[in-house]
Amino acid sequence: MTRRLKEIIIKRIFFLFACVSILILGLIVAFLFREGIPIFRIVSVRDFLLGGEWYPTFDPPAFGIWPLIVGSFIVTFLSTFIAVPLGVLSAVYISEVAPRPMKEILKPLIELLAGIPSVVLGFFGMVVLAPWLQDTFDLPTGLNIVNASLMLAVMAIPTISSIAEDALYAVPREFKEASYALGATKSETILKVIIPSALSGISTAVILGMARAIGETMVVLMVAGGAAAIPESLFDSVRPMPASIAAEMGEAPFRSEHYHALFATGIVLFLLTLAFNLIADYVSHKFRETGSGTL
Amino acid sequence: MALQSSMRWRYLKEGLFFGLVRLSAFVITAALGGLLFYIIFNGLGAISWDFLTLAPTDSMTKGGIMPAILGTVYLTLGAIAIALPLGIVSAIYLTEYARQGPLVRVIRIGVNCLAGVPSIVFGLFGLGLFVVFLQFGSCILSGALTLGILILPTIIGASEEALKGVPQTFREASLALGVSKWQTIYRIVLPSALPGILTGSILGIGRAAGETAPIMFTAAAFFTAKLPSSIFDEVMALPFHVYVLATAGTHIEATRPIQFGTVLVLVGLVLVVDLIAIIIRSTIRKRKRW
Predict the structure, then answer these.
(1) pLDDT at residue A118 in the model
(2) Hey, are the CB atoms on A278 and B109 less than 8 Å from each other?
(3) Which residues from A are below 8 Å from B211, CB to CB?
(4) Angstroms from B263 CA to nearest CA on chain A
(5) Domains (ranges, CATH) in chain B?
(6) Euclidean distance between the first and the last CA atom of chain B, given in angstroms as a whole number
(7) Which among B32, B35, B99, B113 is the top mutation candidate for probing chain A, defined by the most A β-carbons within 10 Å of its own β-carbon?
């Protein structure tokens, strides 16, 4: 009897530990709101989100994060545009084309690329890419959307590549064999059979890559330029949300309007990435790869 | 004739496609190679025994980076000490105890969402909870707790993977001998899964060591005159040091060599840690007895 009791107690305790992740998620929400909500006594939610002017230290201050949101989305979309073809095609190479030894080298290599700290990519963008962009395109500054997007793409590629590769790998062998039996070439099989069957996994990869890019801080803080205005060209500077939070929190007086506004920006960022993650979760479960049995 | 040209078109497409696929793999390899080469080439000159063992001097324009290395080690070890037990126990519950159902689904979604939370939001959370609410202030403890939470999903994921890899027959054999479930897990399942869990934790260490945004408001200082004496002291940290030197110094151009040196030490540290994990993993795969 005591043995049974012990087992039950252990199970209960383990359950509590497993709930810690949920608890932390709850605490994150609670503390972001606790420190962020007070700003909405000064500006309305609508003016905060859609206001075109972010002058938090002026007198009177203006707390409109629309330029920050636009900045975040522009660098995210441009980096996705660069990272998706590279990430997906390299996944195709690793899972379908590469000879085995090549595969054994490339997979860890992509893992290492994922391990490079973001501050290092930011540094590289500042010291190498920025002067080069400035000289080549004769710009006032090399710290701009293009630079930030390129460095963000480097961050997103490993995420996209490794998840897409898992999805491609999971496509049943029979699909491939049936396609070859019908006389399709290898590229036709990949493009018309394998990629479509893995599409839900690849979509998940792309969404998670975007989530990674929109939440990334150090790269955009160091190379996006920091101008809180709606950009007119791809060579303009922007100030994405994470950059604004990271750059200004150190200077914002404790519990000032500015401090609350930065936490509120954190809420927006958190909700955006949460939405991306929930969509990714939904896509990967709803449109699970069709196995041969379900056809 | 028409048939022949259509065949030729197919061959051409075939070649084009494979060219593109190979090119993309090459571009990624070249990007990583170029980056590493550039950092090593520019950073190696700054590395010396003094650089690794001395504190910065002359308002951080000369001297070494020892306090930053030490700070990163403290923060990282603290983070893993917090995340490892939590992560392993969560993973044991999810793989060994939990029945598939809505509750487990909610926990899993929670873990996934936690993995997707931006690092700067972890920083804000750490500031709100540990620094302000619990009044730890900006210190090693706050930073280690924040980083620990950041790598928790990584550890849970890796541990789950490792536990799932232990064959069901191991568990059945043990239970058939009359061993209780907990003892089966503790004596049979965990030891078999340990190398896999280890790999995941080492990758977590690499991640924690390289993060900047979560420690900006919770632990990191521009400069500390002396080394930390307790977990309630602020510390310097390698990633934050890189950021500070590259953006906030008054002699940004003059301190370039120190910046490259710091970047090289940081990248070297993180990549060596990751490489150890990768090597352990491939050794396990080759030596697997089941």
Answers:
(1) 94
(2) yes
(3) 117-118
(4) 6
(5) 69-238 (1.10.3720.10)
(6) 57
(7) B113
Q: Does the pLDDT at position B1 exceed 70?
A: no
CA distance A182 to A186: 11
Q: CA nearest B9 in A: which residue? A: A185
pLDDT digits (tens, 9 = 90+) for A236-256: 999 999 999 999 998 889 899
Say yes or no for a CB contact (<8 Å) between B120 and A117: no
Q: Which domains does chain A have, with CATH numbers?
A: 34-294 (1.10.3720.10)
| B98-136 residue pLDDT tens | 887 888 888 888 998 999 999 999 999 999 999 999 999
Segment A183-201, tens digit of pLDDT: 898 999 999 999 999 998 9
What's the predicted TM-score (pTM) here? Answer: 0.91
- Nearest chain B alpha carbon to A86: B24
What is d(CA B41, CA A26) in angstroms, rounded to the nearest whole number? 46
Q: b vs e for A148-178, b when ≥16 Cβ sit within 10 Å of the residue's Cβ?
A: bbbbbbbbbbbbbbbbbbbbbeebeeebbee
Residue numbers in A near B118 (CB within 8 A): 214-217, 242, 269-270, 273
SS (H, E, C) B52-109: HHCCEECCCCEECCHHHHHHHHHHHHHHHHHHHHHHHHHHHHHHHHCCCCHHHHHHHH
Yes or no: say if B72 and B189 are a contact pair by the CB < 8 Å rule.
no
Min Cα distance A226 → chain B (Å) is: 12
Global ipTM? 0.91
B277, pLDDT greater than 70: yes
